[in-house]
Design brief:
By secondary structure, this protein is an alpha/beta fold. It is 21% helix and 33% strand. It binds zinc ion.
């Protein structure tokens, strides 16, 4: 788990824009970057997001049965499932990002998506996806971002977000 999650350069702005651009549907993206020991504490790791890989939301109606059959999500049945409340990233997109990252010394360190009609907090559906294990960044309808660490037991830890300005930025 990262002690701190940093956004390098314009990554925060790019992420916010690419997620909001998909509104009213949920937007999604992969986060590429690296993990370095913190300058302040050896036990702590700083994860830095260096590239945003925007993805298409490919969620389709059939996907929900997978989620619903594997988990007790009765409270969510009342809300109509659509791309406005669900997202899915194409696994092929993930492979492409992975390949590109390997050439450029970056790893996929997490994913991001938006909740156009909700808070920037992982939903029960988000928790049920194995994909969402690990680092997850969520934007609410106004583009406010929050970072989360999803544990294997599906419990959540909020992450501290920080902005890093590189030399290219004014
Ligand atoms: Zn979500």
């Amino acid at each position: 788990m990262p002690g701190l999650l940093e956004f390098d350069g314009d990554c925060l702005i790019v992420l916010r824009h690419s997620l909001l651009a998909n509104s009213p549907q949920e937007g999604c993206a992969l986060l590429l970057g690296d993990k370095q020991p913190s300058h302040f504490s050896k036990e702590e790791t700083v994860w830095t997001i260096k590239l945003i890989w925007p993805c298409c939301n490919i969620w389709e109606q059939g996907f929900s049965t997978l989620v619903q059959s594997s988990n007790d999500l009765n409270t969510f049945h009342t809300r109509q499932a659509s791309r406005q409340t669900r997202f899915a990233i194409d696994p092929r997109e993930q492979l492409l990002a992975q390949k590109w990252g390997r050439k450029n010394n970056l790893k996929i360190i997490g994913s991001a998506h938006s909740h156009p009609y909700g808070d920037a907090i992982p939903s029960a559906v988000d928790r049920s996806w194995s994909f969402s294990q690990g680092l997850m960044v969520i934007a609410d309808g106004s583009g406010r971002l929050r970072g989360w660490w999803m544990r294997k037991d599906k419990n959540l830890d909020p992450l501290e977000l920080a902005l890093v300005r590189n030399e290219r930025s004014p």
